[in-house]
Amino acid sequence: MSVTPIVELGRRAAAAAPAVAGASTARKNEALGIAADLLEARASEVLAANSDDVAAAGERGESATVIDRLELTTAKIAAMAAGLRQVAGLADPVGEVLGGWVRPNGLRITQVRVPLGVVGIIYENRPNVTSDAFGLCLKSGNVAFLRGSSGAIRSNLSIAAVLRDALVKAELPADALVMVDDTSRDAAVEFMQLRGVIDCLIPRGGPSLIASIQLHATVPYIIDGDGNCHLYVDAAADLDMAEEILVNGKTQRPSVCNALESLVVHAAVADAFLPRVDTTLADVELVGDERAVAGIVRCEPAEEGDFSREFLDLKMSIRVVDSIDEAISHVNASGSGHSEAIVTGDLRAADRFIAEVDAAAVLVNASTRFVDGEEFGFGAEIGISTQKLHARGPMGLRELTTAKYVVRGDGHTRG
Amino acid sequence: MSVTPIVELGRRAAAAAPAVAGASTARKNEALGIAADLLEARASEVLAANSDDVAAAGERGESATVIDRLELTTAKIAAMAAGLRQVAGLADPVGEVLGGWVRPNGLRITQVRVPLGVVGIIYENRPNVTSDAFGLCLKSGNVAFLRGSSGAIRSNLSIAAVLRDALVKAELPADALVMVDDTSRDAAVEFMQLRGVIDCLIPRGGPSLIASIQLHATVPYIIDGDGNCHLYVDAAADLDMAEEILVNGKTQRPSVCNALESLVVHAAVADAFLPRVDTTLADVELVGDERAVAGIVRCEPAEEGDFSREFLDLKMSIRVVDSIDEAISHVNASGSGHSEAIVTGDLRAADRFIAEVDAAAVLVNASTRFVDGEEFGFGAEIGISTQKLHARGPMGLRELTTAKYVVRGDGHTRG
C-alpha cells in the first residue's frame, strides 16, 4: 500500500485550519449530524474494513483484550454516531469572551477564545477514537490530524473516509479530518515534529507512547498520563463510607486511569478498617507495608516500586500512616498527580488534604472514579491531563481552544 | 569553582515548592519588600560581583550592546528593587476560584487557581532577570529555578544570595530561589530534562536558545518567540493615523519583539501612502516587493526570506496587496503569531482581520508596541508567549499558575 508523506498531510491539515476555525456553530453541528447519520448508513463498509483488521490481529496472535478493543460491532458504531450527535448538542466554546477591560489611555482589550488550529492525536488500537476525536476537534473549530495504530489502520481509514464525506456534504473542507496512513515508527516521529503545523499534540496511549512523545516531540503537547490514585482513610473517617468509596474506586472498573491503586490508612483506624478491607476486596490482590500485612490476613509484603505502580488490575497497595502529614507526603511522593481522595469528617483534615495534595483533582468523601469529562459535566472528553500547563484534569471542548487578544484603539501610539 | 549538580539543585527546588505554594499573600509580599530593601542595602556587594563579570566580558571582547545589558548600576539595582515592590502590590492569583458547579448527583466541583510548583527560567546576559523572575515566581507561589548565562554568573549568584537571605528573613525557604551555578551546556540540557522537578520551563532568549529547548527539553515549556509583526494599511485607512502607528511601531524601540518588521499596503492607497513612508521612515532601511520598490525611492528589492525575517533593527519589509484577503494570507504565512495590526475605518475589514489573522494579539488602529504585560495592565510580565498552549500573548502572574479541581461529596460512589 502506498502511503502519503506526513509533510504533505500536514500541509493539507494546515491549509484547512482557517476554514474550520471560521465555521459557524450551525455548520459544525450540521456536519456532526451528517457524520453520525453516514456512519450508521455505511456501517457495513466500516465493519468490513474492521473485520480485516481483526483477522490480521488474530493471525498475529494478539490477546483477547486487544481484539476486544479493536473489534467494532453495529452497536459500537451506533455509539460512535451517538457520541457525534451528543457533541453537536454541546455549547460551542469558540468566541467566548474570557475577559475585557479598558486601559487608562482608552485602549480596549478583550481576550477571546479561539480554536487551537490543528490538533494532532496519536492513539492506539481503538478505532472509535477516530470518530470521537474528530467530533471534539470539529466542534472546537480544530482540524483533527489523526495517527492511529497500524493494527487498526483499515478501520481508521474507513471511518475517516465516511467522516470526510460528511464534511464535504456540510460544505466544510474534507481535510478538517486528516488521517495518517503511514503507520511506521519513523512516520510517528515525523508527526511529532511537525512544528508550524500541529498546534497541540495529544497522545492517547500507554507509557511507551508517552515516553516516545517526551523523547521525540518538538510540537507542543499535553500528557494524558498515568493515574496512580490514592484513597486516604483519615482518623476521622466514617468507615462505612470509606469502605464504599474504596470498593467503588478499586473494583468498579479497575483498568481505567481514575481507578484506585493505593490505600492509605491512618493508624488510629487501622485496626478497625484493615480487616474490613480483607473481606470487602476479596477479589483484589493486596500488597502492603509491615502494618498492613499485620492487619490484613491476605496482604503480602509490597515489593520495591509497588507504591508508585499503576496496576490497572485487581491489585492494590496499602500503607498505614501515623498522621495526615505522612499521608500527604506519601501521596505527593508516590502519586502521579491525577486524582487523590480523602475520607474524613474532620474539616481541618479535608482542608489540608485539598490544599497540600498536588494533583489535577482532589476529592473529599467521593470516589476517584468521578474524575472524567462526562462525570464533570463536560459532555465529552478528549483525555485527562496530568500535566500542569494548559489543561489539568479532564479535558473537554474548552481545553481544545486557546485565546487571542483583540486590542482596539483610535490611532493609539505608545509614548 | 566547584559547582552543584543540577539534580541536587532540582531536589532542593522541588522540596521547597510545597512551602512556597502554601505561603500566604502577606508573607510573600513581606518577602518581596525585604528583598527590595536588601538589594538596595547590599548594592555595593552586587555591583562588585557585576564588575568582575563586566571585566571578563571586556576581556572576551564582547560588544558594547552585550556589555550594556550585563552592566549593573545603582540605578538599575534601584529599578530591580522597585520591580519587586511593584509585584508585591499586584493581586495574588493563587486561590482564585475559576468556576464551580453542582452535578445532578449532588457532587460539588470547583476549579481553583494554584501555583505551578517549580518554574524553570533560562535566560541570557541580563542579571536583572534574576530579580524580576524571582519576584513573579514568588508572588505566584512558585519556586524560581533559574539558569542564567555564564557571562553573568557572578552577578546572578550575588543577586540570588541577597534574595535568598531575604526569603529566610521572611521565614520562607531559601530554596524558593535556586540558582544554577553550573553554566556549562551539558548542565543546561540536564536542566531542560528535569522531569518531575520543573513544572514549566520558560526560555528568555534568542532563536538559538529556543531551538535548543525544542531539541532537548523534556519538561513542559512555553516559547517566548520571535515577533515578526505586520502593520496592514487597509484601503479604508486614515493615512495620517497609519503613518503615526507605522512610525511608532517601527522606530520607537526597534529591538523589541513587538516592534514592526513589515508593512503591508492595500494597492488602492499605495500611491498616496508609499511616498510618505519614504520620508517618515527616513532612518529606516526599506526592502520590498516590485510595487513597493516602484512607489518608494529608497526601497530596495527584498531578498529571499526578508518577509519572514525579524530584523530587530531599523529595517523594514514592504509589500503591496490587492485585497484584504491577500493581506491576511500574507500575514498568516509570514508572521510569527505575535502581534498584527490593521489600520482601517471599515468595520468589515476590521472584523475580518480580527477573526482571520492567527496571532496572540490582533490590533485595530493601535500600535503593536502596546502588546506587553505592562501596557495590558498586568503590572509585570515574565514574557510574551507565541505558542498557543497554556498562555498566548503577554504572560503575567496568572500565566504562572495552573488549576486544581476540588470535588466534594458525601460518600458519593459511581454507579
Q: Would you kindly provide a written description of the structure presented here, covering whatever features stand out?
A:
The first copy, chain A, folds into two domains: 6-223 and 394-407, Aldehyde Dehydrogenase, Chain A, domain 1 (3-Layer(aba) Sandwich); 229-374, Aldehyde Dehydrogenase, Chain A, domain 2. Chain A has a seven-stranded parallel β-sheet. The relative contact order of chain A is 0.13. The longest helix of chain A has 17 residues, at 6-22. With 415 residues, chain A is α/β, with parallel strands linked by helices. Helix content of chain A is 43%, strand content 21%. In chain A, helix 6 (128-139) runs parallel beside helix 7 (153-169). Chain A is globular and about 65 Å long. Chain A contains 15 helices and 16 strands.
How many beta-strand elements of chain A?
A: 16
Shape of chain A: globular
- In terms of per-residue confidence, which ranges of chain A show pLDDT below 50 for 5 or more consecutive residues? none
The most extensive interface between chains reads:
A-B, 64 and 65 residues
Report the top-level CATH class of the largest domain in chain A.
Alpha Beta
Arithmetic mean of pLDDT of chain A: 96
